[in-house]
What does this fold into?
Amino acid sequence: MDYPRNLRELKSSRYQTLSVKDELRLNLIRKLRAGQKLFPGIVGYDDTVIPQLVNAILSRHNIILLGLRGQAKSRIIRQVTELLDERIPIIAGSEVNDDPFRPISAYGRRLLGQQGDMTPIEWIDRDARFVEKLATPDVTVADIIGDVDPIKAAKGGHLLSDELTIHYGLLPRANRGIFAINELPDLAGKIQVALFNIMQEGDVQIKGYPVRLPLDVMLLFSANPEDYTARGKIITPLKDRIGSEITTHYPKELPSAVEITRQEAWTDRFEDKNRLLVPDFIREVVEQIAFEAREDNHVDKHSGVSQRLPITVMESVVSNAERRSLLTGEEPIVPRIADIYAAIPSMTGKMELEYEGEQVGAKRIARDLIKRAAGEIFEGYFVGIDFSRAVQWFDEGNKLLLADSAAAVECVTLLEAVPELLDSALIPFEFDRTDNARLVAACELVLEGLYAQNKISRNEEGSYTAVTKARKDRRGMIYDDLTETSKYS
It folds into this structure.
């Protein structure tokens, strides 16, 4: 498409300027009428957050997204840009995206006065109209609004009071676009005060200049509501000026969580798409870990458990299975429960613990979360299936160690010793007895489920044994079996 290159051509094209909020509203209406999907890649918000966002944009509101970490707040903010026009015209060289018909800067007005209809026009795309700032305590009014630039004054021979010496901050540079501030409570109170005018009167005043810039901008904010007292707060007059306050949330249902992790985790790493096969129950156990952590009293609920936890855990699970494949030459790559235990380093850094949790230790809590998550998924797949003979085998003093580096063929040989385990583990699934890799994964789910029900025990080395109350070492000291009598093991 051949875009107009000067003001005369722009006028001839009958181009009409819309305010940015009207532009967003109009493009949103078009998408809704056409039945297009809004905010692609955002999962689990179809009936909650997205309808509220639509209402806010239709109302031409500035918006704040409130939610704990890992709830896609920043991604949503960035996707609002998809509702902007593909391109808009500005006066060439303008730092504040001057509208060719109504320039707000001294530069734009001067160029228009000098060249009239021959004023050169540039076209900027929607990405150039999005300005994002992470709020930190060291952000200044000059960063956001602007300040005098003595270098401009010296180079141009201007007086310091001349508008041409202004160094525009991020907000004026977002004129005719979207300005986003992430983690708003971290912004100092005096900086938040500086946003009053733009939100109420639609203009800003730059320090030292007797001018007001009438900006056309959509303001989007994000904040963690639990951080207000810990790291700052949103001052009340600013909250009062924000049109819509929308609360985000973690996935409410397991299938939504699985879909998010499937979309975000880096598991599509093999040229041969058939080389990796992740059983559905493994995906579900990984997601259930996050659900369990969010309900655990030893995990700080004010910080939340980010959706990044199952994403990074899934990546580590696949990597451990990939490592096993590289060592054994086994194909396809099929993750199993042992690989989830190997992914504990991807869990511990993503949970803020309460005082009691710190005393227990992140690794022991992570092990307990895996145990409980596997137990939940096990019950869903194996309800009504009798494993009493397998439990009896362990009660007779037998042990079973399935190393995470052992090939599936070796594991099947060991599992054959457990009565009825292999056949019973196949009941809920469609694969057959010859599929060693998935068979081992299913059997490990059964063993972990029986462990979660305290019918068998599991030690830190991954060995499944009978449940015991206590044991004595050679010095006569009694140690609790960490996998049985202590909740966290």
